Recover the amino acids of this structure.
């Protein structure tokens, strides 16, 4: 009778042992997919303000020691023309250690008519380049002059008509 108790205990342990082994295997497979990687839960975004839209954005590296390139599309939806004065990107530990301001942007100032787009291009130079598939966060500061007919019909660059918009970009670095 004692041998049957030992056999029952062994069968119990073997049955639950296989179940636990299967559970460990399933958890290992799930972890290997990268679902629990924090960057998996961070969504990409480009936020300025509703009337000055970020129509597209991308950061990519060509590979090797090449610098990263950040492209941002900005559209004027203000209802009047604007003179884009400056667009600065502020990064932390990207390209160089610590905080770095990239800008002023070449090709700016430019007058953007209502509904027009402009694509801004930044080359992130330095020793430290972002890894492909890494998430990068940046602050954006856009300054412009209002060219509304009621206020500034000649689109004069006067400090009285200068406005600043702040926003943020979160982007995954792609391979170019």
């Amino acid at each position: 009778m004692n041998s049957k108790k030992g056999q029952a205990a062994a069968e119990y342990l073997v049955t639950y042992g296989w179940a636990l082994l299967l559970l460990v295997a399933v958890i290992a497979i799930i972890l290997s997919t990268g679902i629990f990687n924090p960057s998996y839960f961070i969504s990409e975004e480009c936020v300025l303000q509703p009337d000055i839209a970020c129509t597209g954005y991308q950061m990519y590296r060509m590979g090797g020691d090449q610098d990263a390139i950040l492209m941002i599309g900005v559209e004027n939806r203000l209802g009047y023309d604007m003179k884009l004065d400056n667009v600065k990107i502020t990064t932390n530990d990207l390209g160089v250690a610590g905080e770095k301001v990239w800008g002023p942007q070449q090709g700016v100032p430019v007058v953007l008519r209502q509904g027009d787009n402009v694509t801004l291009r930044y080359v992130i130079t330095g020793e430290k380049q972002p890894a492909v598939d890494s998430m990068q966060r940046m602050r954006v500061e856009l300054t412009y002059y209002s060219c509304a007919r009621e206020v500034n019909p000649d689109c004069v660059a006067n400090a009285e008509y200068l406005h600043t918009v702040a926003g943020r970009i979160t982007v995954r670095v792609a391979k170019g």
